[in-house]
Specification:
This protein is an all-alpha fold. The protein is built from four helices and no strands. GO terms for molecular function: electron transfer activity; heme binding.
Length: 73
């Protein structure tokens, strides 16, 4: 609805891309810090601003949902 790409398209399941880090089981704190860093532009190691563009479109609620989902996997 908000035109935000699914994390699974790059990071999830059996079709996980080899150049992307594995998110499953990462700590909630780590995931939240990284998403916020992409959102505010303090993390800039994403090719063509991919993660920054996605993270900026995520609401705080969506960030919380995403963090909880990947931390519990």
């Amino acid at each position: 609805m908000r035109n935000v790409t699914s994390c699974a398209s790059s990071y999830g399941g059996s079709n996980r891309k080899t150049v992307t880090p594995h998110l499953d089981g990462q700590s909630k704190a780590y995931l939240r810090i990284q998403l916020k860093a992409f959102t505010n532009g303090s993390r800039i190691n994403d090719i063509h601003n991919q993660m920054r563009n996605v993270a900026r479109q995520m609401t705080p609620e969506k960030i919380d949902e995403t963090v909880k989902y990947y931390a519990q996997r």
